[in-house]
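pasting for the record
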Amino acid sequence: MGYKILILNFGSTSTKIAIYDDLQERNNISINHPTEELRKFNSIWEQEEYRRQKIEETLAKHDYKLNTFSAISCRGGNIKPVQGGVYVLNDEMIADMRSGKYGVHPTNVGNAIAYKIGKDNGIPVIIADPPVTDEFTDLARFSGIKEITRLSSFHALNQKRTARKLSEDLGVSYQEINLIVVHLGGGISVGAHKKGKVIDVNNALDGDGPFSPERAGSLPVGDLIKMCYSGKYTLDEMLKKICGGGGLMSYLGTSDGREVENRIDNGDEYALKVVEAMAYQVSKEIGAMATVLEGNITAIVLTGGFARFDKLVDLIKKHTSFLAKVYLYPGENEIISLAENAYRYLTGKVKANKY
């Protein structure tokens, strides 16, 4: 018996839909939500009914009946920290997302929409490896200031999927090997995977680690504090500098890798220097994770959209290939990962974790 899986991936201004028969993609649709329409709502939660209606209209237009799906697979939202794996959405998880106590993001609304559709049609809704996946060791939680605890916040969905895919390609179990997985996207996360668990990783949202296309990463703390109290910037402006306006955006005014690559190809030496610095910082983080794994590293894996940026990849390889062989798995891979996790759950290859 085959399984028909509905994939829902919610972003700030779009909803991505994919239809899978088992692991075969049959359709991929993107619903774009114009800014002028979203301006009608005072919060993302006010968008709930609007976005649900758009999904149902789009599926009906393509002759898909909701009650024919075996499962819905949705990118995880802001819930309490959990171990990696598959979870079936329930009332408690949705309540935590609605409360906002773990953060506010369009995926929270998306999970609520998917959960309602699932309940109305008698089908399970699963999430897998949410961004709050937390498998840290106790030592990884220390920050240096007692009042601040290091948090696990990273591209868990793609990192875990990439690690499983490499393990499969190598003919070994993910639970038997040690990997350093690097997600190169708008944010950059570098994770130490020890026998199937991410025991340390930089906070890729607004914390530590290398600077990225849109995020500042680790900063000289004293200078940052002085900047905050200079009177020149509001709280929102400083937060924007950290996440959204940092990294390549700060130095080059763009986070588009193709544009940066074109600048370098046309002789822009400053753009080259900035990319060299980003590769340098990524490589330092890889080196740090190598110490976490005590040098016992099966492979280093580069993934994410910027893993297609040849110059960046070559520079990272130059700095780190002495540690272990470097493999490339470009792309965000969120849709296929959601499909694979749903299929693994439906076929009984994995059991859902309890929330």
